[in-house]
Every structure is written in structure tokens, then in C-alpha cells.
Amino acid sequence: MSRSAAKWQKLPVSLKELRIDTTLRCGQSFRWRKFDDEWRCSLHGRIVSLKQDADFLYYKATFPDKAAVSASKGKGSISLENHVVDEDTETLLRDYFHLQLDLGKLYDQWSRDDANFRKKAPAFCGIRILNQDAWEALICFICSSNNNISRISQMAQKLCIHYGPFLGTIDGEAFHDFPSPAALAAPSVETHLRQLGFGYRAKYIVQTAHTLSMDRPEGWLEQLRNPSCPPPGQSKLVKAQAQKDDCTPSYKTAHEQLLLLSGVGPKVADCVALMGLGWGEAVPVDTHVWQIAVRDYKFKKIASKTFSKAIHDMVGDHFRSLWGPYAGWAQSVLFTANLKAFSEEAKAEGSREESVKADTEMVIQSVEEEHVAKDIVTMRKRESAVKVEENINSAIALETHTQIKRIRK
């Protein structure tokens, strides 16, 4: 059955509550790609397209034709333009962006409690923590070790192209879902990933994939998730597993369990806990966060370039006591502000605003001066007219007086 072309739907979301141009590229998720003013990514078996204006988040979902995908054998040769539906995408996006949380209130709270946040936040509004797939977050943050956002994004893209299920193409661009643990667990994968430029991270990826697909029970990773933050579309599954295991996970439990995986240190564990498992109090500590702690919160410098777990926990505990249960969210705002690309953009935006303000003031001043000049001219004309009238009246009076004198004579 043919399906109608995807149409843009919209959610009422202000830039104060969500700014996708910042949120989708500040080091949380590494698979969103921007095409002109439109962001695209494969999520939960569909390709999601997003764009935004001051009042709305616009979205559309494109689903693959299963038979066509099967026939393509993953070669990326079919177009999805005519195979689209929009069923539960709104719910997925509300969950993915945590839209149930009032970000403005959180910013207000952090600003009241922290003068540094109050100073930095106005230029970096609308940054939200994403509710991502835990497995994807785990592998992508293993790739983040001694890496930058651009290279991590390239690695995530390579994983999808070579090992992820093919979904199709939009405007000539191929999209694949993220590969499963089983797809990355084969011994041959490590050699191939090294050839693709993953370096020592290839070993960690394969070992962790093997652990999750072979050594851990099904759903083990999701059992570490915050019960109040189920993954989009899987709330029933998470509740069922929690009831079956008769245990309530905590942030500390999730953090410690993640540390048992290959390639996972305290920072990676907290990234996964925060962005993949919904633990808002997790505060990942890397070089940027340490710079912030030393520069703005009076932590003493250390000679070592690496951080022990004790230092990591000390910094995290300090921010948790300062910002509260969503400390990881507040940290992401200051983390973004500390990235050179974003800080330069903020300065440029500030300069543009100052320029616009100055131009506006000049226009206003010019208009005011023009009005003043017109008023002066009008006033002078009126004064001149009055003087002329007075002169005329004086002349008439003089002439009348002269005539009366003549008559009397």
C-alpha cells in the first residue's frame, strides 16, 4: 500500500525551552546531521526531520518500506519519500527532549543558587539533556575518549553505515539505524574498526558489545535506567523488567555497574547515566568541566592531566549540592558555554545584538532630531507669522491714529 508524503507537524516550544541548534550539537548525541535549516537522524526505526522557529518545533517522520529495505540488502538504494507515517512521533519527541520538564524554572533555580550560572545562562538558553538509547550512548561515549565532537560523530556514522540496519535515503542521503550489540560483537569487527580509524577504542567497543550480547541478561542495560525516565516507547518494558527483578536502581548503582564494562571510566559512566539512562544528577567530569571547576568554583589545580575517581566524585558532589537533582543539566549549560565554538557564537550574537541596538538608537535619535527640527521650523514659522500679524496690526493702528488726528484738525 502506498503512503502519502510526510507533512510537517508542529509542537509549541519556545527557544527558551528548547534550542535544537545548540542541543543537538553540544556533545550529547553524535548522529544528527543538518541539511540547510533541517536536522535529520534515524530514531527508533524511522528517520526524524526537525526544524524550528521562535514558537514551534516542526517535525516529520519517515518510515521505510520493509519489503523495499529487505530487497535492497542494505545498499542504501531506495528513497523514503513516498513511504511515510506519523503515528507516535510526537510522543517520542516529547520523551526524547524531556519536554515535560519546565526548563525555564530550572534555569531560574540554578540562577538563584549560583551567580556564575546566572552570568553565563542568558547566552545559552534552551539546552536540554536528551533521553537517548542507552546502548547508543554507551558506544558513542566509549568513542569519546581523547576525542572531539567532530571525530566522534564520524565514528558514529561509520558504525551505522557498516553495521546498522539500512532504513533508506532522503534527498540522496542514506540513513541507517544504530547497530545492535550482537552486530558489533564478532571478533572480526575489531580489525575492521581499526581500519576505519577507531584505534584502541575498537577493542573496547567489541568487548563491551560481547559482554552485553553474551554475558549479561537481556535488558540488563535498561534495568539500570532511572524508573522515572523510561526510554521513548518502552515504558511498559522497563516497568515489567523492574517488577521481574524486584529491584529499584539508583544513580550510584548504575554508575558502578557501568564501570565494569570495557572502556568505561567515571566520565563515560556519567555520560551514559545522564544522557542514556535518565539520571539527571550525573555530572560527567572531563577537561572542560575541570577547567570550569578551577576557574569559577575555586577548585585547586592538579599537576596530572587525568582525573582519579576521587576527584571526579568530589567535583560531581559539589555540583550536585549546588544545583540539585538535575545537576547534570546545569553542568551541560556551562559545558557548552566553555566550548570555543559556542562561546564565539555567543560573542558574535552579542555583537550583532549590540549593533542592532546601536543602529536602532541611531535611527531613533535621527527620527527624534528630525521631529525636533520640524518642530523648530514650525515654531519659527508661527513666530514669524505672529510678528507679521503684529506688524500689520501696528501699522493699521498707526494709520488709524493718523487719520483721526487729521480729522480733528
UniProtKB/TrEMBL annotation:
Residues 143-332 form the HhH-GPD domain. It catalyses: 2'-deoxyribonucleotide-(2'-deoxyribose 5'-phosphate)-2'-deoxyribonucleotide-DNA = a 3'-end 2'-deoxyribonucleotide-(2,3-dehydro-2,3-deoxyribose 5'-phosphate)-DNA + a 5'-end 5'-phospho-2'-deoxyribonucleoside-DNA + H(+). InterPro entries: DNA_glycosylase (IPR011257), HhH-GPD_domain (IPR003265), HhH_base_excis_C (IPR023170), OGG_N (IPR012904), Oxidative_DNA_repair_enzyme (IPR052054). The keyword DNA repair applies. Its EC number is 4.2.99.18. Signal peptide: none annotated. SMART domains: ENDO3c (SM00478). GO terms for molecular function: class I DNA-(apurinic or apyrimidinic site) endonuclease activity. Belongs to the type-1 OGG1 family. This is DNA-(apurinic or apyrimidinic site) lyase. It comes from Sporothrix epigloea.
